[in-house]
Structure formats: C-alpha cells, structure tokens
Specification:
107 residues, 57% helix
Length: 107
C-alpha cells in the first residue's frame, strides 16, 4: 500500500475505501511502502504506517495489526534469506522492548 502518495495523487480520497482495506480485512498480507517520499515531504515510513493502521486497518486495528504490517515489510522484502532472518531477529528484539516500555509505562 502506498497510502500517502495514493491520496496526494487523488487515486483514493479516503483510505477506508482503498482496495488494500478489503485485502487486509480478508487476511491477505499487505506491505506498507512509499514512493517518492521526498516529493511528498515525508521522511521514512512512519506516516505511511500510521495512515495504513488508521485508515486501512479499520476499527479492528490493534498492536497485532501493527506488528503484522512491520513483519510483512521484512517477509516480502527483496533481502536475501540470511538478511531477512537477521533483520527479523533485530526487529523482534526491538518490538519486545517497545512492548515492555509500553506496558511498563502503564503502571
């Protein structure tokens, strides 16, 4: 999904009506990406992930949705199998820390 550029280019006016929303709802893997982020004034993918999470994920979006979107980015990347395994391992550690920090901040 290219949420920001799809809106800027007026390919979809509301992300809730984006074709990827139906695919996500049906359980198909969705990968968040960005095309020409400099042109649209974005840096990194944080805003794209936010747009997908809020717009495409629907009312059922939760941390599992966010985790799956991030893992899909690695799983369906062009990295070699060894690099995917290493990147996934690093990501899993960072995710675990994020969750620990999130839970720790609740008490």
């Amino acid at each position: 999904a290219l949420p920001i550029s799809n809106q800027v280019l007026m390919l979809v006016s509301d992300l809730r009506n984006h074709p990827a929303a139906v695919l996500m709802a049906e359980g198909h893997p969705v990968v968040v990406s960005s095309d020409d982020p400099a042109i649209f004034g974005a840096s990194g993918l944080s805003y794209d992930f936010y747009e997908v999470f809020m717009g495409l994920g629907g009312m059922k979006s939760d941390l599992k949705t966010l985790k799956q979107l991030a893992l899909n980015s690695l799983r369906y990347s062009v990295l070699s199998p060894d690099m995917k395994a290493r990147a996934t391992e690093v990501w899993q550690k960072q995710w675990a820390k994020f969750i620990d920090d999130l839970i720790g901040g609740m008490y």
